[in-house]
Amino acid sequence: MKVYGSRISYYTGKLEAYLRYKNIAYTALPTPYDKAEMLKEKVGAVQMPIVDDDGKWMSDTTPIIMHLETIHPDNPVLPQDPVVGFMAHLIEDYGDEWLWRSAMYYRWWYDYDRQLASNVLTDELTGHVKMPRWMRQRMIIRRQVRHYVKRDGVTDTTRQHIEQSYHNALAGMTAMLENRPFLLGNAPSLADYGMMGPMFRHYGQDPTPQEIMRNTAPAVFEWVARMWHAKNTHKPEFVTQVPDDAEPLLKEICETHLVQLAANAAAFAEDTERFDMTVQGCDYRDIAVSQYRVWCLEELRRRFNLLSPAQQDSVKNLLPHGQADILWNADVPAQSGFNSDNHLPFGKAINVFEGGLP
Ligand SMILES: N[C@@H](CCC(=O)N[C@@H](CS)C(=O)NCC(=O)O)C(=O)O
């Protein structure tokens, strides 16, 4: 299996951690941007990671992991209890889609972080561009700062809240990791893999957030290494009910990620391209609408609907926050029109933002 991505990419790190745990052999390679057209042909969108499994091309880490689980069913990463399983999907989605903004912000806002990341990406990804190295590095910095900082809603008004989001994620995880080695048991689950995206290759490696993690959340710092070294030599024992210590993280997810999913879906339904939202009292303006994230909400609703009425009640009791309503109340439509034939991880995927950038 060839995994095309980057040594510092969010979702590549998430997938690599999973493949290592499952003992699935792979070779990590840089995304061949000079072959962008071929990649688009194979998987619809150029994003990281893209997998070539002996001629079978796959993309999008969430469906990739769910697919690989069917081929490698030993030591599953999805907890057996349906309510715990639903929460694992919810936590994964929060790690994938909410923490992304703050992870990109720390990397491209602070000078040390920006210098380090742009040096790596210049050498990994732009070798084919016929320009002096300093110019390629400057192009990368410009692109990332323009799109992932300015165009994704980072302003003097939102910066503090974006940093607070990171601190809240660390605190929520610490509460859980004080009681067990992984978020939902003695082995990594889908929830852990979702949190590995931001926590490993961004917060855990970029100088500014890494220092914060070391100093304020050493249990998370230790967990990152534990995840990377996890071996599937023992049968996973996951919790059979959602533990009380998950409460702060679940509350944070409702107040942040679900607010964004709801505002995004409403804007998509109205066919607008950008929207405003207020998250925990902080006003975000001019955020790019994402069709992909409408699909994320659709998926969460689909999974909720698969639960029995009693299990649905348990989920509702565990998420007693108004914002959680979006998971079971269809007043806000979630019709992405994407992946309705369930073809993923094969065939055409889409970028989180149309055209690849917010
Ligand atoms: N939902 C996708 C997201 C993949 C993704 O957005 N990856 C980022 C980098 S880690 C990317 O390729 N961004 C596009 C760009 O910056 O051009 C997944 O889970 O694989």
Order of helices and strands: EHEHEEHHHHHHHHHHHEEHH
- Determine the strand fraction and express it as a percent band: 5-15%
Outline the biggest β-sheet. 4 strands, mixed
What is the total tally of β strands? 6
Protein name: Glutathione S-transferase
Domain GST N-terminal: 1-76
Pfam families: GST_N_3
InterPro entries: Glutathione-S-Trfase_C_sf (IPR036282), Glutathione_S-Trfase_N (IPR004045), GST_Omega/HSP26 (IPR050983), Thioredoxin-like_sf (IPR036249)
Structure explained in plain terms:
Keywords: Transferase. The protein has about 350 residues and is an alpha+beta fold. It has a domain at about 255-340. The protein contains 15 helices and 6 strands. It has helices spanning about 10-20, 35-45, 60-70, 80-95, 100-110, 110-125, 135-150, 160-175, 190-200, 205-215, 220-230, 245-255, 255-270, 290-305, 310-320; strands at about 1-5, 25-30, 50-55, 55-60, 275-280, 280-290. The strands form 2 sheets. The protein has a 4-stranded mixed sheet with strand order 2-1-3-4, sandwiched between helices. A two-stranded antiparallel ribbon has the order 5-6. About 45% of the residues are buried. The model has no long low-confidence stretch (mean pLDDT about 95). Bound molecules: glutathione. The site of glutathione (GSH) has 11 residues, from helix 1 and helix 3.
In short:
The protein has helices spanning 10-21, 36-43, 61-71, 82-97, 99-109, 111-125, 133-149, 159-177, 190-202, 207-216, 218-228, 247-255, 257-269, 291-305, 309-318; strands spanning 2-5, 27-30, 50-53, 56-59, 274-279, 282-288. It is α+β, with helices and mostly antiparallel strands and 358 residues long.
